[in-house]
Design brief:
Number of strands: 3
Number of domains: 1
Distance between the termini: 23 Å
């Protein structure tokens, strides 16, 4: 198999293109792509247990903690003890993060569409099916 035929290389190349677009659009907000995606996930479900958030964004807890540390330092999230279990922490968006929601959601939607509009509806369905298969490829 030729190097250019390697699926990891192809997916990585597309991922780097997407990262470059996001980096350019997010630079004015001082956000990294992982911070941005975490905020987008929190816009969907704020006041969420850290363990649940880690599952939602498919990150291990230690990676998530580092991203949350930076978001908290920048005044975008807070972590509070859960009222149900003081050992568990919940993540909350701050007012500062809420003020960015429309702009960041617009970047999210526009950038996603920039890539998805290159696919027909039929291709999109197939693409989603392929991604699901690839996500579990290492499971067995």
């Amino acid at each position: 198999m030729l190097f250019q035929e390697c699926i990891c290389f192809s997916i990585g190349r597309v991922s780097r293109q997407m990262t470059r677009v996001y980096r350019n659009r997010l630079s004015q907000y001082g956000l990294s792509q992982p911070q941005f995606f975490l905020l987008i996930a929190l816009y969907e479900s704020d006041d969420i247990l850290i363990t649940r958030l880690a599952e939602k964004v498919a990150l291990d807890k230690s990676t998530l903690t580092g991203i949350l540390d930076r978001l908290e330092r920048d005044g975008l999230v807070t972590r509070l003890a859960s009222p149900d279990d003081r050992r568990a922490l919940t993540v909350h968006l701050t007012e500062k993060a809420r003020l960015l929601q429309n702009n960041l959601t617009q970047i999210y939607n526009e950038t996603n569409q920039l890539f998805l509009l290159r696919l027909s509806d039929h291709e999109r369905v197939i693409f989603d099916e392929i991604l699901k298969k690839l996500e579990v490829a290492s499971d067995g």
